[in-house]
Amino acid sequence: MSQSRGRPPEPAKLLVGDGGELHQQAEGPETRLTTNQGLPVADNQNSLKVGPRGPVLLQDFILREKITHFDHERIPERVVHARGSAAHGYFECLESVADITQADFLQRPGERTPVFTRFSTVAGNKGSADLARDVRGFAVKFYTREGNFDLVGNNIPVFFIHDAIKFPDLIHAAKQDPDREFPQAQTAHDTFWDYISLTPESLHMVMWIMSDRAIPRSLRMIEGFGIHTFRLVNAAGKSTFAKFHWRPKLGMQSVVWDEALKLNGADPDFHRRDLWNAIAGGDFPEWELALQTFSQEQADSFDFDVLDATKLIPEEVVPLRVVGRMVLDRNPGNFFAETEQVAFCVANVVSGIDFTNDPLMQGRLFSYLDTQLKRLGGPNFHQIPINQAKCPVLNLQRDGHMQMGVPQGQVNYEPSSLGPTIARESAETGYRTFPAPEAGDQLRVRPESFADHFTQARLFFASQTEPEQNHIVSALVFELSKCEMPRVREAVVAQLANVDDALATRVAAGLGLKGKIKPAEAAAPTRDMPPSPMLSILAKAKPTLQGRKIGCLVSDGTDGALVAKLKAAVEKAGAKLEIVAPKVGGVTTAGGDLLPADHRVDGGPSVLFDAVALLPSEEGGAQLAMESAAVNFVRDAFAHLKVIAYLPGATPLFVKGGLQVATADTDPGLISLDNGSLDDFLAAAAGGRIWPREPMVRLVP
Ligand code: HDE
User: Fold this and answer.
1) What pLDDT does residue 421 have?
2) Helix axes 455-462, 486-499, angle to 10 degrees
3) Torsion over CA of 475, 478, 482 and 484, rounded to 10 degrees?
4) Residues 246, 286: contact at Cβ < 8 Å?
5) What is the distance of C-alpha 634 from the center of its chain?
6) What is the pLDDT of residue 600?
7) Which residues of the chain have pLDDT under 50?
8) Is there a contact between 339 and 83 (Cβ–Cβ < 8 Å)?
9) Residues 364, 365, 369, 374, Cα dihedral to 10°
10) Is 137 a pocket residue for ligand 1 (Cβ < 6 Å)?
11) Bridge partner residues of 152 (DSSP)
12) DSSP assignment, residue 40?
């Protein structure tokens, strides 16, 4: 019997990390597989045994080293935001902001600062699906010349709670139930809504997470917000308040809820894959960074408190000032080393950026460092390559778990007269906290100015277009219908009654709640504000196909020239065309050419695309109508309000899908390529979904 059975033909290459440095791979023996001690390994497939069939020896130090390393490969996942994807890129300053901040990376137009940006969901575990209804984390690490600045934000500009002391309860309620460990990655369960019903300050954020903001089409199409009011300080020591906003160049876009449910099955990595593929294909996502800045006097004039993270400042009140752009142009080389080990920390600021007394922010200043100590195992996590500042780091901190450097010399204290070159503090250029005057009694109280929980929730609902309002109602009905306890449903509806009567009535109707709705007790009356169209996705959507994807269903006998023309036109519009066929090997076109496929029809449902073209031949269409995946492709595209281009060969699919009533005459999203042109199709597809179709496919309370 051969003792080397199963050995791969080529020896595996091993690159051993050493403080971020990779050992050079040279010709010859350096390709040898070794242990972590550098010992060349003779057999990487068989453990050391007594005879070919005998027991394995404890002596096998190679086996033990390999297995031990494997056993320790995981670090604790983040307690929130566990599921994430990230990319490298740069921030480019577009306008000097020296008038309001001395932050070095915001001084010189055209100057670029490297960044690493991680997007995430909040509630789900590391392996959960991407299209959960959830907030998206939007965390950016700026490696500036004056130290790292971490802007750790979300895609929603407000938060659930006022005070950090409530965060563990909020998260416990949102994540899986502790006894059964389900449901994961969703808020549609009793504990979450029970908590919400008892926490009226969360109602504003609840409006946002029940909106389509919580089910984005792509991470490249989300906004980002620093949420809290920050304090900017210029070189003269003058303070200005600021809120940070990221605006996606591709515009904002979301999926519809039924699509999200199906995407989670069809491709649980939908967002992750989309981000990766876009960057790998040179289609670099981009955002504008804008600031809302305001003075203490303006802050005092608002009818809400700028320290209250459940409130936003409408853009109509304080407009955005664009100061830079961020481009993500490089995927991580190693998910664990970078995306998993990156340690964001709200306390990582640079000179010119300071905190305010927002009690949520103050709690975060403690939490992030604490969590990194646990997750990354000790105080030297800043030495992990992804966390390292890209400017000199010099101090007298020494030792500790996993110290990767070899700090030299006798002097590890300051002041010292012994070391000629030790690090010294610098009074002129060092970080200085803004000398905000503080006084008062030590109290555990909530300020009166935080008492109005509903006015901005009403503002948000009132600022949505009709389909968006319908989606909020439907989402609330969906989530509350998953709650098993009637008390919970009723208590949430009682809170909604404080937001908007009509909203509460519609949700109650959707839940089949009988009886009159009695609003929950409110700490302050709800006021009306002028609607803010900037809070709507649809009101500010821009017609574009940039970054979008078109799915093209084909069969043997498909018109290959038409597909080629469509592909060229789609690519010219900045989108991608993917071919869906009965077999992944592709189809033979009418002209006898092979048209390769990107997906087999059951693995390429129409939820993966923004618009679809149905181009089977007559015979191919009849055959595809016998395959429910193909019929569902068409039915779902219709139900998800997509623009559909078709040829007569697709008729059997419409018929089988029960869609024969919808004709091109009654539905502007159905484009016959017999009568219309590819241009008509692409123009319609750039407009997004066909909202007038929605009442035909979804009942809304
Ligand atoms: Fe976080 N949050 N958070 N958070 N948060 C974490 O830090 C915390 C809050 C946000 O991609 C943790 O490294 C507290 C608001 C993002 O790695 C932890 C409070 C906002 C990320 C933590 C909040 C965020 C985190 C878990 C209430 C939007 C992911 C792992 C005071 C402005 C960063 C980690 C990444 C991660 C604590 C509230 C955003 C435990 C105590 C508000 C984007 O430290």
Assistant:
1) 72
2) 80
3) 100
4) no
5) 29
6) 98
7) 1-26
8) no
9) -30
10) yes
11) 139
12) B
**Among 82, 251, 80, CA closest to 169:** 80
| C-alpha–C-alpha distance, residues 289 and 230, integer Å | 15
Question: Which superfamily does CATH assign the domain made up of 456-535 to?
Answer: Catalase, four-helical domain (1.20.1370.20)
Beta bridge partners of 158: none
* Amino acid in position 141: K
Alpha carbon of 119 to ligand 1 centroid (Å): 12
- Token pair recorded at residue 54: 């005998």
How open is the CA angle 561-656-607, to the nearest 5 degrees?
65
Strands 136-144, 321-330: pairing kind = unpaired
What distance in Å separates the CA atoms of residue 184 and residue 545, rounded to the nearest whole number?
34
- pLDDT, residue 10, reads 43
Cα separation, 329 vs 319, whole angstroms = 29
Q: Which atom of ligand 1 is nearest to the CA of 79?
A: 26
CATH of 84-387, one of 3.30.2350.10, 2.120.10.30, 2.40.180.10, 2.60.40.10: 2.40.180.10
Q: Quick one: tokens of 259?
A: 């699509």
CATH number corresponding to 17-73: 4.10.91.20
Counting every residue written for the chain, the total comes to 701
In order, the DSSP letters of 346-387 are TT---TTEE----HHHHHHHHHHHHHHHHHH-STTGGGSGGG
Ligand 1 atom nearest 152 alpha carbon: 43
167 lines ligand 1 (CB under 6 A): yes
Question: 130 alpha carbon to ligand 1 midpoint, in Å?
Answer: 18
CA–CA dist 246, 288 (Å, integer) = 6
> Which pair of structure tokens corresponds to residue 203?
């109602």
- CA pair distance 325, 286, nearest whole angstrom: 7
Please identify every residue annotated as catalytic.
81, 154
| Predicted pLDDT of residue 395 | 92
Q: Where are the domains of the chain?
A: 17-73, 84-387, 456-535, 549-697
Q: 251 CA to middle of ligand 1, Å?
A: 25
- Structure token pair of residue 68: 């031990």
